[in-house]
Amino acid sequence: MRLKSFYAKTMTEAMQMVRESLGEDAIIVATREENGGKAVRVTAAIDDRFHNPSKVDAVEREHKAGHDLAFELNHRPEMTRDRDDWLQYDDEQEAESSLAESIIDVLLKHGAPEDILDQIVNCAAMSNLDEPSIAFMAALDTLYNFTPLPTQAYKKAMMFVGAPGAGKTLTVAKLAAQGVMNGLNIAVITTDTVRAGGVEQLKSFTKLLKIDLKTAKGPAELTKALADVKGADQILIDTPGFNPFKTADMRALASLGASGDIEPILTLAAAGDADESGEIARIFSALGVRRFVATRLDIARRLGGLLSAAQHGGLAFSEASGTASVADGLMPLTARSLTGYFFPKSETSSTDSLRKNLHQTSRKKSTG
Ligand SMILES: Nc1nc2c(ncn2[C@@H]2O[C@H](COP(=O)(O)OP(=O)(O)O)[C@@H](O)[C@H]2O)c(=O)[nH]1
Ligand SMILES: [Mg+2]
Fold it and tell me: Per DSSP, which regions of the chain are E strands?
């Protein structure tokens, strides 16, 4: 199989390029916007075996057998017959099937929804890579966007939104600390003024960082606070926990977001149920959210929710939080680092490997 990406200004142009280059049999594996929506990237695959009709059925049976291997311990009679056929296939197909099995196994453990599982497995199988973790990484890179948060001055204020307890306040504190360490002029505004202790929680961090924490009760006050901190390299806005399933909450959040030149960024706990995380991401994407920070990775064992949020909300991965300590900062998520959570290298628990990752990154950041 061959996998190829095409860049064009419009989807129509990209599809035309796919057809011209790979022919009518090409399968579209992924489409995504590039360059802030100014271009599209279409990844298409062509299966050489589809030019050999006798093999088409075999490929389909193999695909089915690969799935059933992971889903069922006991073979149904009809599957055994299929498996016998499948066992006679050439090495390339066997290798692909065991690659698919490894990836299916990992994704099932992580509670990934079936549509995502299918997409990743298909994309990984088409990558022509033998090592499951590498093929998985290539699939993540093809299927998802990774857009780290800015480390330099940024013209939009960044407003962190999400369910109560998702880690918004800690994310703001971590980013403020990182920004100050990088020599940036950081402004912090909190709109979490009603909940008891909402302001105090953030103030305890901003005080240490010598940042004058601004408070804003609603959209009008937020507009004013934004004007007060104009000129800061980065403006971070903390918000109260709004319930994504309550229309009134989402309306209130939308008007906060419309109070200035603001980018809303979702903060999402990693351990959430996959379907629920996908739904939450979709709701927040309607508010203009385009990327998300994955939090509480140290206390998560199933990361299917993160894939679901990216897929169903159309969101890019930005950073990860894996400790409750402000000093540890956030770690940019990439296809490689995300793969590390699904395919941990050592036998140690994923918490340990994550911790190691985060410490290495923060050390690298502070030395580089
Ligand atoms: N272990 C761990 N705890 C976290 C992480 N992110 C947030 N927390 C904790 O989760 C709780 C809720 O976080 P907070 O930032 O207050 O959530 P908010 O309601 O969205 O503002 C706090 O006790 C945080 O210290 C994380 O990545 N790892
Ligand atoms: Mg908070």
Answer: 2-8, 27-34, 39-46, 157-161, 186-190, 214-215, 234-238, 262-269, 291-295, 316-320, 331-332
| 319 within ligand 1 shell (Cβ under 6 A) | no
141, 335 in Cβ contact below 8 A?
yes
Instruction: Kindly state the percentage of the chain with pLDDT values over 70.
Output: 79
Locate the ligand 1 atom nearest the alpha carbon of residue 295 and give its number. 27
Which token pair is 325? 């300590």
Count other Cβ atoms within 10 Å, centred on residue 267: 27
Q: Is the CB of 197 under 6 A from ligand 1?
A: no
pTM equals: 0.75
Residue 30 pLDDT exceeds 80: no
CA 107 to the chain's CA centroid: 15
User: Residue type for 189, please?
Assistant: I
- Residue 319 carries which side chain, given as an amino acid letter? E
* pLDDT digits 0-9 by tens, 177-232: 999 999 999 999 999 998 878 899 999 999 999 999 999 999 999 999 999 999 99
